[in-house]
Specification:
Strand content: under 5%
Structural class: mainly alpha
Largest sheet: 2 strands, antiparallel
CATH topology of the largest domain: MetI-like fold
CATH superfamily of the largest domain: MetI-like
Amino acid sequence: MKALTQLARYTLMIFVALIALIPILWMVFGSFRSHQEIFEYATSLNIHLIIPVEWTLQNYVDVIMDERNPIFQFIGNTLFIAVTVTVLVLFFNSMAAFAFAKLNFPFKNVLFICLMSAMIIPGEVTLVPNYLLMNDLGWVDDYKALIFPSLVNVFGIFLLRQFFEEIPKDMMEAARIDGASWFRIYWSIVLPLAVPALITLGIITFLANWDSYFWPLIVLNDDSKQMIQVALANFSSLAGTEWAKILAANTISTLPILIGFLFVQKYYIQGISTSGMK
């Protein structure tokens, strides 16, 4: 019975994984099709729904050589913003989480509850005030408008606080007796122990900025500064949508994320499981 239970469990997991992978496989293999072939087999229930009949690299050549939409420049812009925001979010939010988890100060619990209540506010509600603030600061069409509004991550503070709560206080009390400051304790003791949680928050933050579309579309007017998700929309026009090129461009922009996630997925799962998140 135990062997049958494990077999049923693995079968279900493989089935769910295949359901999740089918759209990705369709995108990747579709990028090697011609525009006509994409629609020719779009409704067929055979192997050619996924596997191309006639393979072609022309879509990738067209996307890479397109001077009007330099995809690698857009990927570079997105990578710069995503990495910058991720590093700053990890630094500032980890300090806030450390304060809420280990320090005692007046109204700590009240402030934490007020902070958590911000999680129920939809992003659309703050869209107009944020834009007006960026405009007053003169940051419209500047990368500062993408970086600074993203520095406070309420969920990230909550996630790290849950992890920091599990770190024994005896370690910090011993460090305080030895004369270490609170920042030294945070930097030399807490952060090294919180690597899985930091990687988890880093992945979530990086992906959120990599996939950001609406906010960059609003605050950036210069096409040369644009993010990859907004740039992909340039393959659609009044003349029609170039689906083959869109699939190729999406594959190029998705591949670095998939490769990176394969290397850090162990820490991502460990960070979620050890931070009180279910």
